[in-house]
């Protein structure tokens, strides 16, 4: 039991209007660790990140970050808290009209009064950390997908955050870029002494780099454990997910109560059929 985790979600429920998205979520992100939230599309992973970032408020339950209840903060408190969180959004969108250098300097200029010489040194340090110091003057359109993702990573750590949240950091990358980005997530976490949350459905890549995994299905945590425990899990849902098996508790068919035969016989133009 971690008495002082960076993040704690306690009995969190969240609904859009009256449609439940998350139910009874209990989750802990320890300091200094990399934790993955995995699950199929639409299960509520991004929603969980948005609750932690304070963009959404839970319908009930508590979201605590570094000892503060996120949804009880006023706008100044929230602004201050968010400044200490780095975020790599899905597909790591960069500002397309700014150079790589300016993309990273942007946060520093927005949130600090640091002089340009210092910003220069910090931008170069961040770019060096992701191996792209030489790309500082390029525009985003001149980068490969893997390079763009690394720039987005450098931008996420621009302000030395206490927490970095990655939303699908591996999406659309070739296998080499994928493992470079994976290794960088781990290295940056350890070098900066932050905590990281990786939202992903890329099981194999993330199991190589994370300390702990939460599996979410239909808005509930259905399994959790260390990367080793997850790899060897016999829990049917986890096993199916980890090994990418088509058959198992996750159905190929979206649920329907209507038998297939009945559906086919009741289509348009079928009403007059004599049988
Ligand atoms: N603004 C919104 N209004 C209503 N429903 C929403 C909204 N945003 C997301 N949802 C719904 O909430 C559910 C959870 O979405 P969420 O984005 O958290 O899933 P996810 O697990 O991150 O999926 P993906 O991997 O595809 O990004 C989905 O069913 C989605 O349709």
From TrEMBL:
SUPFAM superfamilies: P-loop containing nucleoside triphosphate hydrolases. SMART domains: AAA. GO terms for molecular function: ATP binding; ATP hydrolysis activity. Residues 7-243 form the ABC transporter domain. Pfam families: ABC_tran (PF00005). InterPro entries: AAA+_ATPase (IPR003593), ABC_transporter-like_ATP-bd (IPR003439), ABC_transporter-like_CS (IPR017871), P-loop_NTPase (IPR027417). Keywords: ATP-binding, Cell membrane, Membrane, Nucleotide-binding, Transport. PROSITE patterns: ABC_TRANSPORTER_1, ABC_TRANSPORTER_2. Gene3D superfamilies: P-loop containing nucleotide triphosphate hydrolases. This is Phospholipid/cholesterol/gamma-HCH transport system ATP-binding protein. It comes from Sulfurisoma sediminicola.
């Amino acid at each position: 039991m971690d008495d002082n985790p960076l993040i704690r979600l306690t009995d969190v429920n969240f609904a859009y209007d009256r449609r439940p998205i998350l139910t009874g979520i209990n989750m802990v992100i320890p300091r200094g660790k990399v934790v993955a939230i995995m699950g199929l599309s639409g299960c509520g992973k991004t929603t969980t990140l948005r609750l932690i970032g304070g963009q959404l408020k839970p319908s009930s339950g508590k979201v605590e970050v570094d000892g503060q209840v996120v949804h009880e903060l006023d706008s100044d408190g929230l602004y201050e808290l968010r400044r200490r969180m780095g975020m790599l959004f899905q597909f790591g969108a960069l500002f397309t009209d700014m150079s790589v250098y300016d993309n990273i300097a942007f946060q520093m200029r927005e949130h600090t009064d640091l002089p340009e010489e210092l910003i220069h040194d910090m931008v170069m340090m961040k770019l060096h950390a992701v191996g792209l110091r030489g790309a500082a003057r390029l525009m985003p359109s001149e980068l490969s997908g893997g390079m763009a993702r690394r720039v987005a990573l450098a931008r996420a750590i621009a302000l030395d955050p206490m927490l970095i949240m990655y939303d699908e950091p591996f999406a659309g990358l070739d296998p080499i870029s994928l493992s470079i980005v994976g290794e960088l997530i781990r290295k940056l976490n350890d070098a900066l002494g932050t905590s990281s949350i990786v939202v992903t459905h890329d099981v194999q890549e993330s199991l190589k780099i994370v300390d702990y995994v939460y599996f979410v299905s239909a808005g509930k945590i259905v399994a959790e454990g260390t990367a080793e425990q997850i790899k060897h899990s016999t829990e049917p849902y986890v096993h199916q997910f980890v090994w990418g098996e088509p058959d198992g508790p996750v159905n190929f068919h979206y649920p329907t109560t209507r038998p297939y035969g009945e559906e086919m016989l009741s289509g348009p133009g079928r009403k007059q059929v004599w049988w």
